[in-house]
Task: inverse folding
């Protein structure tokens, strides 16, 4: 039985596409904004990081108006490493969306195949120098932030559907001759999963950064209506071919597909130039990259803090003193639960801002996969309750300035040499440490031991609020009572 759908393709800057407010309200927005100046994809696309965050702010504001009450956004995004600087895109994006009025429901991690590392094999630094402080992991993860526009209506819960919040998806490989040449396309499976989970047939799906048209293609296949916005007019033939519409008669506003009743409407947005930019600071990254204020006495060579289920009020003078007492060049490792939509938990953006105000920058992030031990949920507009089994937490690695590797003698390094065979066999080199058969508490002990090996030399001081410490290779002093 035929199920006709409608699809609107708007050509122009999605942050200025106010015409979208005249189209049907959006049930689900699935998109992947251009990552800030990402190598290979968007190199030097933005003048600076603040310009990127300004774009994200305009995007969040416009599509908040275009979403239905209770409408959902699945935002595929990740922190970005460029020229040795890690940009805290996830944290700053959460801050922007919070300020706009969205609710953060949760986060999904999707893992790419281990055989594909696109940017660089950073773990090779440690393999060449198997000593503490040389650790840089290879990233095979991306994140999908799930935001929802608040609804004044009481949404029913007729159906309950359960999923996990770590997905394994094969990404679009940069093969020669593919349709998405020079386009950072995400795999069909990503929008397909989100559309199936959060909507039903006939729903309106939107992708403001449409690119090659993956979301429109999948929406049409799943009998959903769609709205796509793409700034590059030269991508129209690619979008039409990928989504299955005829490439004939490109000048027509309407083009009927000969094998279905689906209709693609093409509109060109007339953009008024506006060079004025709001002078708003969305990130504390510039402050973190500046020189920190030195103090006379330092107590800790490594800080490992379990901040899961810690309230925002913990970001106080005591927490600040801990950070200030970290030796220059050294690491603050924070165990943080991404399930931070509860006001009683320490939210990621507030944690990151607080740490960066003290002169530390984000260096890396490790995701710890464990047995499902919690849940988060979304009540959709389509009379269903979506429940996700929560099976990971994250370890955020912050660093105070740069570490002076020459400050340690060859003998001091050799005394703490890291077992390269274990490093490779147990896959410490990946940003996902897979302990899916273990509990959170079991993971904590393993993670802490690894962090001690990776970032601490002999006879140094570690401060932590995790009391179960074991590291046979180290002789160190611990301070862990009542740190936070």
Result:
């Amino acid at each position: 039985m035929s199920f006709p759908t409608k699809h609107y393709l708007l050509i122009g800057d999605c942050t200025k596409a106010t015409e979208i407010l005249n189209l049907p309200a959006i049930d689900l927005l699935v998109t992947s904004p251009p990552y800030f100046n990402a190598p290979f994809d968007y190199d030097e696309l933005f003048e600076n990081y603040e310009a990127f965050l300004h774009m994200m702010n305009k995007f969040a504001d416009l599509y908040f108006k275009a979403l239905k009450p209770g409408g959902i956004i699945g935002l595929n995004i990740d922190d970005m490493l460029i020229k040795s600087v890690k940009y805290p895109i996830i944290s700053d994006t959460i801050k922007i969306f919070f300020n706009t009025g969205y609710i953060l429901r949760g986060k999904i991690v999707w893992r790419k195949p281990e055989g594909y590392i696109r940017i660089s094999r950073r773990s090779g630094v440690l393999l060449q120098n198997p000593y503490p402080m040389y650790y840089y992991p290879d990233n095979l993860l991306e994140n999908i932030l799930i935001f929802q526009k608040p609804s004044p209506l009481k949404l029913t819960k007729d159906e309950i559907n359960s999923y996990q919040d770590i997905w394994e998806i094969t990404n679009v490989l940069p093969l020669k001759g593919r349709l998405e040449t020079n386009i950072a396309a995400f795999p069909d499976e990503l929008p397909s999963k989100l559309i199936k989970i959060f909507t039903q047939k006939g729903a309106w799906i939107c992708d403001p950064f449409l690119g090659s048209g993956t979301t429109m293609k999948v929406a049409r296949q799943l009998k959903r209506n769609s709205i796509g916005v793409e700034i590059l007019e030269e991508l129209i033939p690619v979008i039409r071919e990928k989504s299955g519409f005829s490439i004939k008669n490109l000048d027509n506003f309407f083009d009927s597909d000969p094998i279905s009743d689906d209709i693609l409407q093409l509109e060109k947005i007339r953009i008024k130039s506006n060079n004025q930019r709001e002078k708003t600071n969305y990130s504390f990254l510039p402050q973190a990259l500046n020189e920190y204020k030195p103090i006379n006495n330092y107590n800790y060579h490594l800080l490992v803090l379990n901040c899961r289920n810690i309230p925002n009020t913990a970001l106080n003078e005591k927490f600040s003193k801990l950070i200030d007492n970290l030796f220059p060049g050294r690491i603050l490792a924070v165990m943080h639960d991404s399930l931070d939509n509860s006001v009683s938990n320490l939210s990621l953006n507030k944690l990151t801002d607080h740490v960066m105000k003290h002169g530390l920058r984000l260096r890396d992030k490790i995701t710890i996969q464990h047995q499902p031990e919690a849940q988060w949920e979304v009540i959709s507009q389509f009379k269903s309750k979506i429940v996700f089994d929560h099976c990971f937490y994250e370890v955020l690695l912050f660093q105070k300035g740069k570490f002076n590797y020459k400050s340690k003698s060859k003998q001091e390094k050799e005394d703490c040499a890291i077992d390269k065979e274990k490093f490779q066999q147990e896959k410490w080199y990946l940003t996902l440490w897979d302990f899916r058969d273990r509990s959170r508490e079991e993971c904590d002990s393993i993670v802490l031991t690894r962090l001690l090996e990776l970032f601490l030399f002999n006879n140094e001081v570690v401060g932590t609020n995790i009391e179960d410490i074991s590291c046979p290779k180290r002789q160190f002093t611990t301070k862990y009572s009542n740190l936070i």
User: Anything to note?
Assistant: The domain at 6-268 is CATH 3.40.50.150 (Rossmann fold). The radius of gyration is 24 Å. The chain has twelve helices and 20 strands. The chain has two domains: 6-268, 285-479.
